[in-house]
Design goal:
The chain has about 425 residues and is mainly α. The chain has one domain: Up-down Bundle (Growth Hormone, Chain: A). Helices cover about 75% and strands about 5% of the residues. The longest helix is centred in the middle third of the chain and has 30 residues. The N terminus and C terminus are likely disordered.
Length: about 425
């Protein structure tokens, strides 16, 4: 199995580290966007260490508190159809600032919630802002960075890894004082990001034509992108079973849980940025992806059936496999089809975030109906299914793809070529 080779930008087989000498020499706008991206990704894992504290503070069940993830990612998934539509009309800079503003408002409101229902609702608004920001930030970093898409993806994955690592740590430090404080902390950090982008990011060139709401769905008509999104859907179910359900299983103090997920996030960052490119260069992207998904499945089974110490070790170790998967999936999504990168990314994320919404909703309910082991068995089965899709659809993931300029017909963007 071999990864995508894409005309005009790096194929998935080429190591992300190529052009590494240019990675650190970036315009201020790129660093401002990457910095705000770190905080945006911090918001995903921020609540991990404080989920039990939130449940106690709001007198809620585990399944009710898990809806914090479900509402967040469900709105994020649907909003993916809006991101290109909005950014192609008001520009990337305004879209980023609008997303940041929404996160600031809804993160602050989350901290003031008086019930779990209010908190779930405010997290949904947070998800809308995060969708506008995260999907557009990747396109902005790719467009404004020096060193091509290799350097841009490396920066983006670095931001993701750093955010995933620091989110639980911030949640633990602030949440140990009061479960509301991490939300206020995130709002303050995103406000700083808003000011930084206002100061350093100039308006980005708009696409030749306006993107319609259905363009991301049409992009999924490409077999390679559809296969990538389908495999990522099952992978994300496994990923977010770890992120949203494991804190209840570990049942540790905010500091202890934050430490576990900080170590998890560090491994995620190291493997996504440093290890993945080397493994891809040596073995090929699809081999790395399939093997990593199978190893994640094995890790989940051991996590589900091991004792507490084993569960902690396996939770941390899963960060390595998740880091590998994140990098390869991102590269495939951007390079496997001829769709413009923002459109391809929106279609891909539209599919995969539904799994991120489903796992936090289903895992605690499955535990209530059966036992604590079955959620991890199903998550492992999902990871194996993702690996199976990669193997069975490998031919569609090796198509030569070039990124054409979008062409407008009657106000709707279509793909030339």
């Amino acid at each position: 199995m071999r990864g995508t080779k894409s005309g005009g930008h790096r194929g998935a087989d080429e190591p992300s580290g190529q052009g590494g000498s240019s990675v650190l020499r970036q315009p201020k706008a790129v660093w401002a966007t990457a910095g705000a991206s770190v905080v945006a990704f911090m918001g995903i894992g921020l609540v991990d260490p404080i989920l039990p504290s939130i449940a106690r503070g709001l007198h809620a069940t585990h399944s009710q508190v898990s809806l914090l993830f479900t509402s967040y990612f469900l709105i994020t998934a649907v909003a993916m159809l809006l991101t290109g539509f909005v950014s192609s009309r008001i520009g990337g800079r305004r879209t980023l600032l609008a997303g940041l503003a929404l996160v600031v408002v809804f993160a602050a409101l989350s901290g003031m919630s008086g019930s779990v229902g209010e908190l779930v609702g405010f997290r949904a608004g947070w998800g809308l802002g995060n969708a506008l920001f995260v999907s557009t930030s990747l396109a902005v970093i790719v467009g404004a960075s020096v060193g091509g898409s290799a350097a841009a993806i490396l920066l983006y994955e670095s931001a993701l890894g750093l955010g995933m690592a620091c989110g639980p740590l911030l949640g633990a430090v602030l949440g140990d004082m009061k479960w509301r404080y991490p939300f206020f902390g995130t709002a303050a950090l995103m406000a700083i990001g808003f000011l930084a982008l206002t100061a350093f990011l100039q308006e980005q060139p708009r696409p030749a034509g306006k993107t319609s709401l259905l363009d991301p769905v049409r992009a999924l008509g490409h077999g390679g992108l559809a296969s990538t999104a389908a495999a990522a859907f099952f992978y994300n179910y496994a990923f977010f079973t770890v992120l949203a359900f494991t804190p209840f299983v570990l049942n540790m103090s905010p500091y202890a849980s934050g430490g576990v997920f900080f170590a998890w996030g560090v491994l995620l960052a190291v493997f996504s940025v440093l290890v993945a490119p080397r493994l891809q260069h040596r073995f090929g992207s699809l081999e790395v992806l399939g093997g990593s998904l199978l190893l994640l499945a094995a890790d989940l089974l051991v996590l589900g059936y091991g004792d507490h110490t084993t569960a902690v070790v396996c939770t941390v170790a899963s960060g390595a496999f998740i880091g590998l998967n994140n990098t390869v999936f991102t590269e495939l999504a951007l390079g496997v089809s001829p769709a413009p990168r923002p459109v391809a990314s929106a279609g891909y994320n539209f599919v995969r975030w539904f799994a991120a919404a489903a796992a936090p909703f289903l895992a605690p309910r499955i535990e209530e109906w059966t036992d604590v082991h079955l959620p991890f068995v199903l998550a492992a089965a999902a990871a194996v299914t993702g690996a199976g899709i990669v193997v069975l659809r490998r031919r569609t993931l090796t198509i030569e793809a070039a990124e054409p300029e979008p062409v407008t017909e009657d106000g709707v963007t279509v793909f030339a070529g």
